Amino acid sequence: MCNNQRHGLLVNTGQRLMLRNNVFANNKEYPMHVDGAKVRSIVNWESAQPYNVRTQDWTMIGNVVFSINRSLFTLPNWQHFFDTLYSNDNVWHARKTDKLFGLGREGNLTYLTLKDWRQQIKNDHDSHITMPINLSQPTCQ
After folding, report:
1. How confident is the model at residue 135 (pLDDT cuts 50, 70, 90)?
2. Which of 35, 40, 76, 116 could form an S-S bond across to 112 if both were Cys, CB 3.0 to 4.6 Å?
3. CA atoms of 25 and 58, how far apart (whole Å)
4. 69 with 103: CB under 8 angstroms?
5. Is the pLDDT of residue 57 over 90?
6. Cα separations in angstroms, 36 against 49, 63, 128
7. Where does residue 112 rank: exposed (0-12), middle (13-18), buried (19+ CB within 10 A)?
8. What are phi and psi of 121, to 5 degrees?
9. Sheet containing 9-12, strands listed edge to edge, beginning at the edge strand earlier in sequence
10. Residue 60: pLDDT above 90?
11. List of residues 6+ apart from 85 with CB closer than 8 A
12. Through-space distance between the first and last CA atoms of the chain, rounded to whole angstroms
């Protein structure tokens, strides 16, 4: 998910999301951004039954997330998201900051280092910060 004029990934309420072996790089805004309501009510089109969707149960493994001048992943400070997130073996790199993760809402974000992020989500221990190799070519094609 590269070279976008906005975010690499923009999610407005996503449940059971698997992000595996992706590259998020060279995007104009945040590589990964979660926004929206804490809970969203929908209707199952097949059964016509109402259902509440929450941003939770994500898995992020083996991704490369890179930004030249912004934090990498911004999202609301939702404990249910952190409690259900599994994240590991990712490469995180923001060229101009060590504050990689923004919690809260745009304009009122609290920024975390990778160490702080690991304490918040209680995993991501095998992920690391490094400059990815050859992000422009060929991985972003």
Report:
1. low
2. 116
3. 20
4. no
5. yes
6. 22, 23, 28
7. buried
8. -100, -10
9. 9-12, 32-35, 73-75, 101-105, 108-112
10. yes
11. 56, 58, 59, 60, 121, 123
12. 9
129 Cβ partners below 8 Å, 6+ apart? 91, 92, 93, 98, 100, 114
CB 80 within 8 A of CB 107: no
Q: Who wins on pLDDT, 138 or 128?
A: 128
* Domain assignments of the chain as residue spans, ordered by start: 9-129
User: Looking at residue 36, what is its pLDDT?
Assistant: 73
Closest among 36, 37, 30, 28 to 9, alpha carbons compared: 30
Q: How many Å apart are CA 20 and CA 64, to the nearest integer? A: 10
CB 39 within 8 A of CB 54: yes
